[in-house]
């Protein structure tokens, strides 16, 4: 799920910019300047929740694979 979400949801936006740049004959870094601002804004607004959800999926995967008995040490604990 992690890999498919990354490829199909998160990496879709850089791919769309790359594909447009290739079609228009522009380098990748020149594409955001060549398209209208509302398109960049829309892409950013659509990408933001995708990154948030991807972060949540990664955090859930880390919790899943972490052994149940071990918890990360608290920075407030002192070792005597």
Automatic annotation (TrEMBL):
Q: Coiled coil where?
A: none
Compartments reported by the entry: Membrane
> What PROSITE patterns does the entry give?
TLC
Please report a single Pfam family linked to this protein: TRAM_LAG1_CLN8
Which is an annotated GO molecular function term of this record? sphingosine N-acyltransferase activity
**Where would I find the TLC domain in this sequence?**
1-66
Q: What is this protein called?
A: Ceramide synthase-like
Q: Which organism is it from?
A: Leptonychotes weddellii (Weddell seal)
**Gene behind the chain:** LOC115941158
């Amino acid at each position: 799920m992690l890999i498919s979400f990354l490829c199909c949801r998160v990496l879709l936006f850089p791919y769309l910019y790359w594909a447009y740049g290739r079609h228009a004959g522009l380098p990748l870094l020149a594409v955001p300047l060549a398209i209208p601002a509302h398109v960049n804004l829309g892409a950013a607004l659509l990408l933001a929740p995708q990154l948030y959800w991807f972060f949540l999926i990664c955090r859930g995967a880390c919790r899943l694979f972490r052994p149940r008995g071990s918890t990360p040490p608290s920075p407030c604990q002192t070792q005597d």
